[in-house]
Automatic annotation (TrEMBL):
One protein family per Pfam: Vps35
Protein purpose: Plays a role in vesicular protein sorting.
Statement: the UniProt record of this protein carries the keyword Electron transport: no
Protein name as catalogued: Vacuolar protein sorting-associated protein 35
Statement: the UniProt record of this protein carries the keyword Transport: yes
Alphabetical UniProt keywords: Membrane, Protein transport, Transport
Top-level taxon of the source organism: Eukaryota
Matching SUPFAM superfamilies: ARM repeat
Species: Caenorhabditis elegans
Amino acid sequence: MYENSGNTTDQEKFLDQSIRVVKAESFEMKRCLDKGKTMDALKHALQMLNEMRTAELSPKFYYRLYMDSMHELQCLEVNLVQEYAQEPAKLGNLYECVQYASAIIPRLYLLVTIGGVFIKCGLGSRKEILKDLVEMCRGVQHPLRGLFLRNYLMQCTRSVLPDFPETEEMLVAHNDNLSKGTPKLKPRDGTVDDTIDFVLINFAEMNKLWVRMQHQGPSKEKEKREKDRMELRILVGTNLVRLAQLEALTEEMYVKDVLPSILEQIVSCRDPISQEYLMECVIQVFADDFHLATLTEFLNACGQLQQDVNIKILLIALVDRLALYTTSYNEGQPAPTKMQLFEIFSEQATTLIKNRPDMPLDDIVALHVSLVSLAVKCYPDRQDYANMTFQGLRQVIEEKGVTDIEAFGKVGRELTKLLNIPIDEYKNVLRLSQLPEYIKVMNYFDYRGQCNIASYMIQNMLEEETVFRNQDDVDSAFSLISSLLKDQEKQSSDSHETEEFADEQNLVARLLHLIRADDVDSQFLLLNSARKTLGEGGRHRLRYTLPPIIFELYRLVLQFSDMKDEDDKWDAKIRKMFVCAMGTIGALVSTAELAELPMKLYLNGAITADRVPFEDNHTVVYEFVSKALSILEDDVVDSRDRVRCLHLTVGTLLKTTHLPEENWQPLANQTVLAAAKMFKKPDQVRSLVTVAALYWHGQTLETNGEKMKNGKKVVDILRKAAKIARECLEPLVQQQLFIQLLSAYTYYYEDNCSEVNVDHIEELIARTQDNAVQLDVSAEADSLEKQLGEAIRRLQLAKLDVAAAQATTIRSEPELPQPPS
């Protein structure tokens, strides 16, 4: 194709030499034009165009030479148009003189240039000139030179191609019917039919030249030739773009003349590269209406293409374009019923897969992606179309014996696209339950692939707020995401240790809050049913999935608490809800082997039960708190976790107000005992200080909303804490505990706890001060010294406040009457 196939450096060298000649000759050409010496300018133009005869340049470098030369030819064309616009008759001599040039390449370039000037100046027949030029270009059969010459022909004639629908007969009939005085239309030289013929001839010749490139040169350079051809393909495709830009091109013309000629050329060339590219060009450049009108012809041509052509790409491009067109065409209206697009494409895809048994599975899945997109977008009410597509794909996968598709492989990525399309388009994942083949196809994924699709479904349901109103909705949703709810055969033994597992189970937990029945009874049944299904998920899933059920039960209790007068079995139903919640929490303890989470849920249940005034609510509160304390004693091992859980228990007991004294005392005593049993002595002291608040701020049924304020019990607990603090051997820690105890004593003293002895506080202060002297110098010691000073100052202020309050009380007492003398 070109003689020198050297490296880039050699190509650059040859190109520089040619461009220097082009610039030199173009300079002389322009100088002659300025002097009015047109014939001399043409001679220099011929010398310049002689460089286009080179065989040393590859297509990429030849293109650069072509662009520089064409730029200079445009200057020549503009100058000739300006010079001969007033005297166009003199152009005839130039046209004849140029034909005497010896070399055909320069001669044809100049003939095309002057032919364009002829047409722009209104000389001769446009139709005849265009026909003459396109036929003369047959004289160049070298693929590279011929392609660029014909491309120059298209560029020069681009603006002068006739684009008028009227024929001469129509023009005569129009002028005959005009009234007197009305100006008649002038005959137009050529119509759009002539332009179509001109472009189709040029297209056919360019395609032949392009295909010929494949068969020139040794076989070892086949890949290089294919690469060069791909760089030049746009030159051939420009012809089809020009046809599509014709304003006068009608659907009838396209059906009868344009497409048959194009398809005949494409099929007859028998070149896979040419066929694939040109068919794709046809899809992209022509209007959607034209494609709908010629769909059968186009698909028949696809069946006649070479085996190496990737027809999958062509069908996908056509399906996607027509799907987009039918959905955007008069939005809100259904797809055109005259053209059964889905049936046609489905049949074509089935035939293609049958005729090409070696077709890769990822290509087959990609083809079904477009079919599903067409079915879902254009026929949203015909779910049988989508189901039919999934069924066809399932049968193909079964025939190929594939059982486990990797999520992130080629086939897996295409299958993910396929399964995501209905999710995105339906806006309601529950509609997928009406596609029985959907789940069967999804089951061909490996465990990770199934989980990815199920997670995508949940995200869509959360975004769209897909609410589950009845048992069928819950069952449908759970069947679609079953890979996330239960252990699978394809699941690895350590899958629960990954971040993906935790993220997926958190999505399931969020999904459960979308269970919203229309009434309380139905809601309870749905939650109970969901609890049973989730309970089969294994110990690793329960920690994520059961807590939402429990909180939904608590929310349902609070919602139902205002309906006491509307239901005769109100108390029994409330109690049943708490029993269900307690059993669910028990599963977290026994099956999931958790401790802190169930304890927190028990304490939440106690607070919820205390807020609802149903019969025997104090029994439910007692059960929840006692179970929480049982977990604290038996299952919580870490010392920090025990301290934190104890604080939660104290807070819960302070929050409850409807426990009778006989139930409250055992719980409070057990809490004190748990505080005293902490593993570390500092934790014992801090916990006892916290627990002491129960006997001061706690409320029972008998206190009628008043605080208990059992000062004796508070002082006993604080003294016990002080005793333990004195047993600590670390000076810094002991000092911290003494200061904390001092703050606690001061707090209760401020709150008028009469059992707090000031002398005992003074003794504690003296002991703390003595301990401070023994501390080593450090930042922590300085900080503790400041805290001690602040605690002492606060105590002094508290003494003043208490003394002032007592003095006010004495003054306010009435004076007794004096006895008689």
